[in-house]
């Protein structure tokens, strides 16, 4: 188990209610707010370049349509995902994983890299993300936690960078999730907030896992979870949760 310096309030999708999600603009705002950590989602382009995006299509976040896995990196990296959020962010484009990691290190942000494979690309996405991290000099990497809903993606990443800590994402706690997280040698279980209770958090902690919870946008809930022993929460509104 590595040292757990993982901060408690993690800007979800780089703080997706305050800036276009999964963008460099979001990273900058998260850092200015005083966040110590961010989370972003990573998917592969057609030519296997890892880029920051949550959905398998561009439809929700860009002013154009298209499947991420069918578009070349050149097209994705030139896609405006700012204007759909607010005209003030027009021109903000999809960043590559490499660019986002460099920005995190420059800004002093720890990062949870969520491997978000397009369907059928689980192993490839995990492997490529792992390779990007492996090729970075450890001194030039920000502090990283890898996570995924896909056990196959996590295992493939772990084969490349066994030293980078991992968290298994599940939308609901289950005894099976504990077994899978154990098999993958995870340090954390990253759980959806719905249906979560104190007993489940205790069971995860007793099994040796830190618990991170998504997506928490209200201070009373964050305080309740902290009292139950969670190590951190992902939030679209870190400004509401960080100490004033
Ligand atoms: O990693 C926590 C959270 O990001 C998982 O859900 O769908 O927002 O990527 P999602
Ligand atoms: Mg995510």
TrEMBL record:
<protein>
    <submittedName>
        <fullName>Glycerophosphodiester phosphodiesterase</fullName>
        <ecNumber>3.1.4.46</ecNumber>
    </submittedName>
</protein>
<dbReference type="Pfam" id="PF03009">
    <property type="entry name" value="GDPD"/>
</dbReference>
<dbReference type="GO" id="GO:0008889">
    <property type="term" value="F:glycerophosphodiester phosphodiesterase activity"/>
</dbReference>
<dbReference type="InterPro" id="IPR030395">
    <property type="entry name" value="GP_PDE_dom"/>
</dbReference>
<dbReference type="InterPro" id="IPR017946">
    <property type="entry name" value="PLC-like_Pdiesterase_TIM-brl"/>
</dbReference>
<dbReference type="GO" id="GO:0006629">
    <property type="term" value="P:lipid metabolic process"/>
</dbReference>
<keyword id="KW-0378">Hydrolase</keyword>
<feature type="domain" description="GP-PDE">
    <location>
        <begin position="7"/>
        <end position="244"/>
    </location>
</feature>
